[in-house]
Amino acid sequence: MTRTENIECSVFDFDHTLIKRNCMPMIFFTVGGFWNVCKCVVKIIFIKGIFNPKFVKEEIKIFLVREILAKKNSVELRENIYKTKYKFPVNHEVLEILYKCKSRGEKVYILTASPEDFVKPLIDKWGWPVDAVIGTKLKSKGGIYTGELGVEFSGESKGEYVREMLAGNFFVKVAIGNLPHDEPILKLAEKSYAVKNQKLYTYSLCQLSMVAK
To answer: I need a surface site. Which of 102, 123, 202, 213 has the fewest CB within 10 A?
Structure first.
């Protein structure tokens, strides 16, 4: 199959790339209420006696999904996210590239470690020209969330997804993510950019260089 027959696409990370922070805390605050979420966090840290920062972060996420989302459905979640009062700081430099990719006729995909059902409503609310959001799944039964997360869609999982696209009839023109988590996808695109400390760099396997203004 020749290049001209391929479907050209671009892939973007979401947290710390298209937005400047992780979206999950603000979604939990929106759905569960600020003080309820704070109580859950205190419970995990002090009652369970977990003090390793990396482990705490993962345990808090698992606990909040169980406590906040169990017995809710996707319609309730979407409605809550649509009405959120919290601000999600957008990285406009990255968003500008997303719009340029779409204007060239590329398919635009967001690949995110955050729950897919968190990110999709935000993208719809903001009206971004995105063809698909692929992220971590929230497990459900009969349309109701069980309070469990599926396998996290991050790092090498994203890389494997992009390799499957390339094995089909897709050609990845642009990839943008944050380091070091998104290197598996940055290595696979014709042109890649990396976000580090909220700044955008052109990416190569050897070095980072600031994007020319």
So the answer is: 213
Q: What Rg do the C-alpha atoms of the chain give, in angstroms? A: 18
Domain positions in the chain:
3-20+89-210, 24-82
C-beta of residue 169 within 8 angstroms of C-beta of residue 6: yes
Judged against a pLDDT cut of 90, whether residue 50 lies above it is answered with no
Measured CA to CA, the distance from residue 112 to residue 116 in angstroms comes to 7
Secondary structure percentages of the chain, helix, strand, coil, to 5: 45, 25, 30
The CATH code of domain 3-20+89-210 reads: 3.40.50.1000
Give the tens place of pLDDT for each residue, 134-147: 999 999 999 999 99
Q: Which two tokens stand for residue 124?
A: 């719809």
Task: Tell me the whole-structure pTM to 2 decimals.
Answer: 0.89
